[in-house]
């Protein structure tokens, strides 16, 4: 008899890994009956033809936002004390005190954080979140749907959103086993594990150790190391165009070698456009020396700013803009949905560019899968002033300590060195590939093509218990 699995999409983040890859087809081959339990504005049935059950209610308990924000701050404070660090608090972002509602919420968060940054305080907040969410209309709707459809397992695609809490609690209260996927490599030290499930699916042994370190309420037998479907497309040769086809489809010059500049969101890199400009100036300089180079600019899919426009216009002789093929179904960052077509686009950009340049992005792993180097920019821009975040902070984060050595990436720490470094990469004199592939294996695991299969195998094991 087929096992009935709910793939729970609390927001759009999980679409990329679990609706647009081969994940569903692999599950069906393993005799699972799959329903997408859909909390997003994206219509799974209309767009993809998959079976879905929509959650219409989006209500949260009035205090959930306060408690969840407090929990993050309290945990980060506690991590700093527990591990004798100062870096965990840099994962925090300033609160807003503008307007009465924001002022009240932020003051409540501040009070809870001040007095509750300890094990007892964190337990209290976790308990209050669950208590409040069990009273919501969303909990009642979720419970009713679960009672009607009787899934054997609820698999949550993202451990971060408050929108997931009530639905997961409804499943647990009905005795339905639940699991969540840790969706990004930096999530655990950032204290973003809001969804508490019966099982946790992680990318690698490294991430498993992090779960045990940062989530003391989780035991080792609750964790399954599976890999992530995020990188599977890079090993799918059917997605690759020929070089000639790729160049023609994006009006690229076959006589040029291209560098990818991968844009960041405005929070991570608020002055990102100036690093793109610096790279464009270096490319112009090298082209005067006889090189034939260009830049493919791929923006961050959830960057809604126009901050790059002036640079793109000014340097259109060397920069080609190729936008990600993501589709907006709402206004917020988690309502910008990826598409299957973007898998192929990103794979081809990685394959047909010389290397990637960016600020602290996980794109290093995408390019590593194609045996390409990553150049991290790590110097201040003259436009940096008080109130603007320095990008150097990104490289001090805990998740960057996972790299096997500094050679896992190439680094430009002085603007005046950029041209010579780019030249050396193009000439094959320097490369980060050997060490970046070690880093890739640490974070992603040794079998990056088997993640979807591993998740279904793990679900089989759980359901046979």
Q: Give Rg in angstroms.
A: 23 Å
Helix-strand category? alpha/beta
CATH homologous superfamily classification of the largest domain: Glycogen Phosphorylase B
The top-level CATH class of the largest domain is Alpha Beta
| Low-pLDDT stretches | none
Q: Portion of residues in helices?
A: 25-40%
Our measurement of the CA-to-CA distance between the termini, rounded to an integer number of angstroms, reads 16 Å
CATH topology of the largest domain: Rossmann fold
Number of strands: 15
Strand order, largest beta sheet: 3-2-1-4-5-6-7
Shape: globular
CATH architecture grouping of the largest domain:
3-Layer(aba) Sandwich
Summary tags:
465 residues, alpha/beta, Rossmann fold, seven-stranded parallel β-sheet, 15 strands, 39% helix, globular, transferase
Characterization of the model:
The chain is α/β, with parallel strands linked by helices and 465 residues long. The protein has three domains: 3-60 and 136-227 and 450-463, Glycogen Phosphorylase B (Rossmann fold, 3-Layer(aba) Sandwich), CATH 3.40.50; 74-125, no CATH class; 233-444, Rossmann fold, CATH 3.40.50.2000. The protein has 17 helices and 15 strands. The chain has helices spanning 15-18, 23-29, 44-48, 64-82, 100-116, 119-133, 137-149, 165-173, 205-214, 243-249, 272-288, 309-314, 340-351, 363-368, 418-426, 433-444, 451-463; strands at 3-9, 32-38, 52-54, 153-156, 178-181, 199-202, 223-225, 257-262, 293-298, 319-321, 327-328, 336-337, 355-358, 373-377, 410-412. It has a seven-stranded parallel beta sheet. It has a six-stranded parallel beta sheet with strand order 10-9-8-13-14-15. Strands 11-12 form a two-stranded antiparallel ribbon. Helix 4 (64-82) runs antiparallel to helix 6 (119-133) and helix 7 (137-149) crosses helix 8 (165-173). The longest helix is centred in the first third of the chain and has 19 residues, at 64-82. The protein is globular and about 70 Å long.
